[in-house]
């Protein structure tokens, strides 16, 4: 078998690689090798327990691949032979390639704790998730280890069941602490507590024990939490085995090394998504961000560069949004504390305004925006937001602003559409108000 | 009396001028002269009939002026003496100024039609609106002349009453036709029709007659529509009398002439908002756009330039959003038909994607995006969107993109935050999909 363009992996990065490669190369043969018969949508995983009626509702449609005339092979790549430019599959077949895109994804990060095998992981595996769904839906007490996005979203989803007692264990001082400053993280925690979620922060898991089907999570402070089921969600680690075996360069303790065109150390081999090393837009440093949206951006860049280096990856701005019990939170770029860690001198602009105008309109609530600018050039380098659902796309205004290297002055004098029922008032539009505040400093 | 900075007009442009001037000039005396005891929020006017319980819920708070230590004078400016640098007020007082900002606003555009006096106008006047609210709330049959944003929003608001029969008369082929191409305008019309609104397009009002308190609107096609009340909302005309009397230059059939720093022809006199001439961001041509968001942007620019010309007004991109019976529509920059009128060769990228992912999540509906790029540089020059409420801030992503002169390639490789419950999937994020489509052309 042969393919002009071969893609390993059927997650968002793989699919976007294939579809974008087709747009640019109408006549090439494109093959995508995917291990899973049914590929789950990773972002949807926290919502398979209640909001979705089954895991079948969280399956990536194969239709875009068919429409793009991409051959889909359900098989597993077990070896890449970079000199012979071919990939060996588990069922025994080999596929020659002209261009290879490695999108082998990531797996749950593990921790060396006794009894950790009792915990479920966030695996992107249909059968595994089916079992996990049944188990969690039956369980009364559930402990989630890790208060990042997935952990918090899973807790929120499960807290929708009246008869469940949900607990989160987070090693840092707050949930979502990597992406938000304290005031935002605390607001998220309040929303979880309102739904009855127990939050234990600043503690480690010491061990997990089981006694007659009842599990116990023992914390570093001595506390022992009873659990019918436990879920481990402390992050992900890149799948680099295939690359390593092929002697494709992998960053120390990191992902597959790529240049700014998403090329690996092997000729005609690209890597994208969770398996590829991501760098920070602002500092250029390696960052362990694994996000479907970043994976898709990398995939589009790789697909554009297959036959000629055209589009550079500027690094990720790390744009996130989440929804917790009615509160939407968004973040992009640096937090205040991250700027401190990086030694960047900053100015902060804040705004808190009603999301409708006049504020007497039904359903009005506050939008809170915190903008972080470098002190010297007054360049926007970070933003945190919370409020109603409109905050998700408002975060994207700021994501684009950071990527286009906007200054406080440029943002303060920008024009935005406003509407009484949809946005804050034009007199106090929060991105402008927060920027104006910084201009005076 | 004297003021370092004097502002005439208490609408959004006046208030933002005052508050922004204060931020930049902590020690100056600032006075704002406003005719109205209570200033209504203009954007909220369509919603005073049902969503708001009274006009008192649509009043601009004076608190921001107090907080900014701005003297508020309730009086009417009747004459500006540009040589003596003073303004004469109706109650007889005079105020000297060092810098004057004219924010005298606009009034309803009238039409020379017999019986037009029977129609209510969209006046920003508390007493008048109180009478109008009572009359419209009593009326069963209401005819709205003009299917622009205000007309359509008013029709939608009034259609919320079960016992009312609402009709819109629009001279163009579609409602909202100035700001949207047909497919979007038609979707808006369908949403109005679902609420029982009668829409008559492509017709003029020939005359209005009254017989025993029942009014009749006679159309150019001969049709006669019965009406208990009639509202005229065909647009606004700038209030330029004060400027004209002071021999400040006014554009022919237009507004007060201003340069790109918002300076009028008179020394130390600035004009902002509806009374000031607005120019188009893309063409630089005069455009009759009167929007609170544009007024506020102009006010911030003028306030920044009072003592030194610093910030240029790049012209307006005309960013709009509206909400009609559950459908949010947004537009910014050029429509397809406007590009044709202006003789600009364009490329169009479209996307229609679910607003959640997976699409089986509750409350999922489509977002439709149409992006308009110049063919030559593939520069984004316009966008139209419709879908759920997130479309309002998604429009603002594109508003910023146009203002930052983004190309299809830059937009296609941009990063945006995505979330299952909040946005389309990262694989098909509509701004990216629509841009990628254009890249191949």
Write the layout of secondary structure elements.
The structure is a homodimer of 441-residue chains.
Chain A: E1 2-8, H1 12-24, E2 30-34, H2 63-67, E3 71-74, E4 77-81, E5 86-89, E6 94-102, E7 106-108, E8 120-121, H3 126-138, E9 141-145, H4 149-158, E10 165-170, H5 182-194, E11 198-201, E12 205-211, E13 214-219, E14 224-227, E15 229-232, E16 236-238, H6 241-245, E17 269-271, E18 278-279, E19 286-287, H7 292-305, E20 320-324, E21 327-333, H8 336-342, E22 346-354, E23 366-374, E24 380-387, H9 391-403, H10 408-412, H11 430-439
Parallel strand pairs in A: 1-2, 1-6, 2-3, 6-17, 8-15, 9-10, 9-15, 10-11
Antiparallel strand pairs in A: 4-5, 5-6, 7-16, 12-13, 13-14, 18-19, 20-21, 21-24, 22-23, 23-24
Helix pairs in contact in A: 1-7
Radius of gyration of chain A: 23 Å
Number of helices of chain A: 11
User: Ends of chain A: how far apart?
Assistant: 64 Å
Portion of residues within helices of chain A: 10-25%
Oligomer: homodimer
Shape of chain A: globular
CATH architecture term of the largest domain in chain A: 3-Layer(bba) Sandwich
What count of domains describes the coordinates of chain A? 3
Alpha-beta classification of chain A: alpha/beta
The profile of the biggest β sheet of chain A is:
7 strands, mixed
Q: List low-confidence stretches of chain A.
A: none
| CATH topology annotation of the largest domain in chain A | FAD/NAD(P)-binding domain
């Amino acid at each position: 078998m042969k393919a002009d363009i071969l893609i390993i992996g059927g997650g968002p990065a793989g699919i976007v690689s294939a579809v974008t490669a087709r747009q640019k190369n109408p006549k090439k043969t494109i093959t995508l090798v995917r291990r899973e018969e049914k590929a789950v949508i990773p972002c949807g995983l926290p919502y398979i327990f209640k909001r979705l009626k089954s895991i079948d509702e969280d399956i990536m449609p194969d239709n875009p691949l068919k429409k793009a005339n991409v051959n889909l092979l359900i098989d597993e790549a077990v070896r890449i032979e970079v000199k012979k430019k071919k990939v060996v599959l588990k069922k025994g077949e080999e596929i020659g390639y002209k261009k290879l895109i490695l999108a082998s994804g990531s797996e749950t990060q593990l921790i060396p704790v006794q009894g950790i095998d009792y915990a479920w992981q966030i695996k992107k595996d249909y059968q595994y998730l089916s079992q996990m769904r049944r188990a969690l839906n039956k369980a009364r007490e559930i402990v989630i280890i890790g208060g990042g996005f997935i952990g918090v979203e899973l807790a929120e989803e499960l807290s929708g069941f009246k008869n469940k007692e949900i607990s989160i264990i987070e090693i840092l001082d707050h949930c979502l602490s990597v992406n938000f400053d304290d005031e935002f993280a605390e607001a998220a925690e309040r929303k979880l507590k309102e739904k009855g979620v127990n939050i234990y922060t600043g503690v480690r898991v010491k061990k997990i024990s089981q006694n007659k089907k009842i599990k116990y999570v023992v914390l570093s402070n001595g506390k022992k939490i009873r659990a019918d089921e436990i879920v481990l969600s402390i992050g992900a680690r890149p799948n680099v085995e295939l690359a390593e075996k092929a002697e494709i360069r992998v960053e120390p303790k990191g992902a597959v090394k790529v240049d700014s065109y998403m090329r690996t150390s092997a000729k005609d081999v690209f890597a994208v998504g969770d398996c590829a090393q991501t760098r920070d837009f602002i500092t250029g440093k390696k960052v362990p961000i694994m996000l479907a949206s970043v994976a898709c951006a990398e995939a589009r860049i790789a697909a554009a560069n297959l036959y000629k280096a055209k589009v550079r990856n500027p690094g990720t701005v790390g744009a996130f949004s989440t929804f917790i019990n009615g509160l939407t939170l968004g973040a992009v770029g640096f937090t205040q504390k991250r700027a401190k860690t990086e030694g960047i001198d900053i100015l902060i602009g804040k705004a808190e305004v009603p999301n409708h105008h006049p504020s007497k309109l039904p359903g009005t609530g506050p939008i809170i925006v915190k903008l972080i600018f470098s002190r010297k050039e007054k360049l926007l380098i970070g933003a945190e937001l919370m409020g109603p659902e409109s905050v998700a796309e408002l975060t994207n205004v700021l994501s684009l602003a950071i990527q286009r290297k906007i200054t406080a002055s440029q943002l303060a004098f920008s024009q935005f559409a406003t509407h009484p029922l949809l946005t804050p008032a034009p007199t106090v539009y929060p991105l402008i108000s927060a920027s104006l505040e910084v201009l005076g400093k």
